[in-house]
Amino acid sequence: MIMGYSFNERSIKNIRTTNRILQELAAKVIARSVFDFGVLDEGGFRTAEEQNEIFRAGHSKCDGYEKRSFHQTGLAIDFVPYINGDYTWKNNEASLQIAKIALEEFQHIFTEDYYLHWGGFWGANDLDGDGKLESTDKLGWDKVHFELRKYPQEWGVYPILWA
C-alpha cells in the first residue's frame, strides 16, 4: 500500500474547525497512514442542528441539545477511511491502523489539558480473548471518532494489532 497521503481541500476545511491539537494530530496521522482517509463535512465541528440531524438518522447517541457531542465544541474529529474510491465506516483493518497511529502520535503532542479517546474502544469485544484488539474482533460502535477529554479513557482499552 501507498504511504504519504494528504488531505483534500474539503478535509482541510473541516479539520480547521477543530481544536489545534486535533489539527496537529490529523496531519501526523495522515503522513504515516497506509490507508487514505478524510474528514467529511460532519466530521469536524457541528452545530446543534447538524448534530440533531445525525442523531435522528440513528448515527449518534447525542441529540445536540440535551446531550451534546464533543463535535459541538471542536473537541472531536472523525477520520473516515477512503478505500477503493469511496468513504467507508466498515473497514476494521483501516480503522484499527488509523487508531493505532493516532494513539501513538498523540503521545508526542504536548498537552496537559486533554486525553485522546477513541470511539472504537466503546463497546469493543476481544472475541478471541487474547487481550489484543484485531480486525477480527468486535470494534466499538464509533471507530472513526476521536475526541479530547479531561480524563483518561479507562474502560475497553486493549493494545491494537494490525499487520
What does this protein structure show overall?
The protein is an alpha+beta fold and 163 residues long. It has one domain (9-149): 2-Layer Sandwich (Muramoyl-pentapeptide Carboxypeptidase, domain 2), CATH 3.30.1380. Helices cover 27% and strands 12% of the residues. The protein has 4 helices and 6 strands. The strands form 2 sheets. Strands 1-3-4 form a 3-stranded antiparallel β-sheet, covered by helices on one side. Strands 2-6-5 form a 3-stranded antiparallel β-sheet, covered by helices on one side. The radius of gyration is 15 Å and the shape is globular. The mean pLDDT is 90.
In short:
The protein has 163 residues and is α+β, with helices and mostly antiparallel strands. The chain has a single domain (9-149), classed as Muramoyl-pentapeptide Carboxypeptidase, domain 2.
Would you tell me which CATH topology applies? Muramoyl-pentapeptide Carboxypeptidase, domain 2
**Overall number of domains:** 1
Largest beta sheet, briefly? 3 strands, antiparallel
**Topology, number of strands:** 6
- Low-confidence segments, ≥5 residues, pLDDT <50? none
Can you name the CATH architecture? Answer: 2-Layer Sandwich
Number of helices: 4
Question: What is the CA-atom radius of gyration, in angstroms?
Answer: 15 Å
Taken from the alpha-carbon principal axes, the silhouette is globular
Instruction: Specify the structural class.
Output: alpha+beta
Distance between the termini: 12 Å
- The CATH class: Alpha Beta
**Which bin fits the share of residues in helices?**
25-40%
Strand order of the largest sheet: 1-3-4
Mean pLDDT: 90
Strand % is 5-15%
Order of helices and strands: HHEHEEEHEE
